[in-house]
Amino acid sequence: AEAELETGFHETIEHEQRIEPRDWMPDGYRKTLVRQIAQHAHSEIIGMQPEGNWLTRAPSLRRKAILLAKVQDEAGHGLYLYSAAETLGADRADLTDKLITGRQKYSSIFNYPTPTFADVGVIGWLVDGAAICNQVPLCRSSYGPYARAMIRICKEESFHQRQGYELLMCMMRGTDEQRAMVQESVDRWWWPSLMMFGPPDDDSPNTAQSMAWGIKRHTNDELRQRFVDMTVPQADALGVTFPDPGLAWNAERKSYDFGEPDWSELKAVITGHGPCNAQRIEQRKQAHDDGAWVREAATAFAHKQKETA
Ligand code: 3HC
Fold first, then answer.
1. From atom 14 of ligand 1, which residue's Cα is the shortest distance away?
2. Which SUPFAM superfamilies match (predicted)?
3. pLDDT of 77 above 90
4. Packing angle of the helix pair 176-195, 144-172 (nearest 10 deg)
5. 12-42: pLDDT as tens digits
């Protein structure tokens, strides 16, 4: 019977169909999905901090309202993804504990500071742009709940990307100081955005198996290249440059050649030694502790409901 179930699993994957929560699946498939979905959720939740930093200081009510909507969306993306992880038997409280105690990761990109308001636009343009490149293929991931969560997340991510680009367009039509602020921000975020796609394929222990299981649809380098090809023309239209002397159109490949990201920096940031890692985890821990009374009250209320039901 187990052999039949296993055959059924592989046939479903081969026919590009969906594995659903109640289907049989190899332990490794379940494990790597919990790993990737949980870390994706953690990224969305931690990702609220760099931008949230500007909520009280946005330059206009319109900018504040847009930023508020975006940060709220990120929280929602985190909740969808924790729910998707729960369909695999993961426990949300346990995942939060693993994040806070450093036993699970979140995206390297959120460990960088946001010292100027131009960062809000550049994060929208480059970070959400990179997230779209990475997440659109995940709409076709073989695990049903993950793929379906991605469909709505990608729609909202596109709004985030457009609002960031529109903000930068306004600043580029502004004063010399505003233009310089945008370029300075782009110079800080370009390489970390490329690193967001993960290590190079020849240093990516999970890619082969994730591709075989239809969890990942493209490799890290393929998506990184797709992001560069999509973004360089947008930089030209904006009037900014990227800090990479190796960036050049390759007519043969019909793609941009670009320099090698600093993989030692990615390793350092992933292992907790980025500019803001400690602060991001401390703030997440503080928010979790501050919210304990809400969880206790909700649990007490639920018990009372059950008793009187
Ligand atoms: N930041 C942190 N950790 C990273 C990383 C990054 N940018 N890139 C790779 N890693 C980790 C991996 O998690 C893995 O460690 P683990 O085995 O302990 O999980 C290790 O480095 C080796 O990397 P692999 O390439 O072998 O790992 P994956 O096959 O999982 O690929 C990934 C990494 C491309 C990030 C993949 O997990 C993925 O596509 N995840 C879903 C997308 C996601 O998480 N995006 C986060 C972006 S932020 C976001 O979406 C918010 C939006 O609002 C901006």
1. 206
2. Ferritin-like
3. yes
4. 160
5. 999 999 999 999 999 999 999 999 999 999 9
Residues 205 and 211: beta-carbon distance below 8 Å: no
Report helix, strand and coil shares of the chain as percent, to nearest 5. 70, 5, 25
Residue to mutate, 34, 194, 206, 281, ligand 1, most ligand atoms under 8 Å from C-beta = 206
The ligand 1 atom nearest the CA atom of 74: 53
State both tokens at 73: 């969306």
Burial 123-149 (b: 16+ CB within 10 A, else e): bbbbbbbbbbbbbbbbbebbbbbbbeb
Q: Is this structure's pTM higher than 0.90?
A: yes
- Ligand 1 atom having least distance to the Cα of 123: 54
The CB of 73 under 6 Å from ligand 1? The reply is no
Q: Is the CB of 70 under 6 A from ligand 1?
A: no
Give the C-alpha separation, 104 to 82, whole Å.
13
Contact 105, 202 (CB under 8 A): no
Among 44, 72, 283, CA closest to 64 = 72
